[in-house]
Design goal:
By secondary structure, the protein is of the alpha+beta class. The chain folds into 2 domains: about 120 residues, MutM-like, N-terminal (N-terminal domain of MutM-like DNA repair proteins), CATH 3.20.190.10; about 120 residues, Helicase, Ruva Protein, domain 3. About 20% of the residues lie in helices and about 20% in strands. The chain has a 4-stranded antiparallel beta sheet with strand order 1-6-7-5, with helices on one face. Strand 3 and strand 4 form a beta hairpin. Helix 5 crosses helix 6. The longest helix is centred in the last third of the chain and has 18 residues. The radius of gyration is 20 Å and the shape is elongated. The two termini are about 15 Å apart.
């Protein structure tokens, strides 16, 4: 699933193509509900921005398109007449201005909303602070981690809860916890505030660096992958063989270093095989 940094980059490209320009053609198709995007024809696009894993495209008539990519969706930007890199039947949304064509492929969620409804719209109103927001509040993220309903969650699950902080997915879960030396199977209640704040700060640094914003050390390039998709390979810090096990409601594999990320409560099924 594309994560907060990927959505930020998508939004930057879409904004560059559409902001300040009039929509000359618009169409959408299923599966699922099809928004009445014809209402956007002749309307100026105000801009595009990401909110966690959501992309919002706003228009001067008070409407906004919301897209959520889930696992397989993507956004492409083309010049008029340029060949598309995916089949037209996969297009969920097409927006055209004079000099660009913006296409969403395969997103399960494309919907047209009123901008004034965004603050109370459940998929957005319930989100935690966005890690890529320049005004991100780490103490608010800590407060949400400390919700009693999350006390018994593993940190590997809780860090991806978008109601705690928006933007972390499976990739940055792995890399954040490794850099913090935190075992992904530790329960939130067993982590002190300093450990949780270090997790928050590290996740934010990783996402910022990934999109070209300076992290806490002034580095602005995509970080190296230490553990993600590296089960069975030697740890790049200590040489210990990385292990993995299924975790979370979607039972995807989580990989960690037993030496760099020690902890109790690891599943007996942990192994050092490469994830499928």
């Amino acid at each position: 699933m594309p994560e907060g940094d990927a959505l930020f980059r998508f939004a930057r490209r879409v904004d560059g193509a559409l902001a300040g320009k009039t929509i000359v053609r618009a169409r959408a198709q299923g599966p699922g509900p099809v928004p009445q995007v014809e209402r956007l024809i002749g309307v100026v696009c105000v801009g595009a921005r990401s909110v966690g894993k959501n992309l919002l495209i706003e228009f001067a008539n008070g409407l906004v398109l919301r897209g959520h990519l889930r696992m397989y969706g993507t956004w492409h930007v083309y010049r008029p007449g340029q060949a598309w890199r995916r089949a037209e039947r996969e297009a969920r949304l097409v927006l055209e201005v004079e000099d660009f064509v913006v296409v969403n492929f395969s997103a399960p969620v494309i919907e047209l909303l009123e901008s004034r409804a965004l603050p109370s719209y459940p998929p957005l109103a319930g989100l935690g602070p966005d890690l890529l927001d320049d005004n991100f509040d780490p103490l608010e993220a800590l407060r949400r981690f400390r919700d009693p309903l999350r006390a018994d969650l593993t940190i590997g699950d809780a860090i991806m809860d978008q109601q705690v902080m928006a933007g972390v997915g499976n990739i940055w879960k792995h890399e954040t916890l490794f850099r913090c030396g935190i075992n992904p199977w530790r329960r939130v209640r067993h982590l002190d505030d300093d450990e949780l704040l270090r997790i928050v700060a590290t996740a934010r640094d990783l996402l910022r660096a990934s999109v070209g914003k300076p992290d806490g050390r002034g580095i602005a390039r995509r970080p190296e992958m230490y553990v993600y998709l590296r089960s069975g390979q030697p740890c790049r810090r200590c040489g210990t063989r990385l292990v993995s096990a299924r975790q979370g409601v979607d039972i995807r594999y989580t990989t960690w270093c037993p030496r760099c990320q020690p902890g109790e409560g690891e599943p007996a099924s942990a192994n050092s095989l490469v994830e499928p």
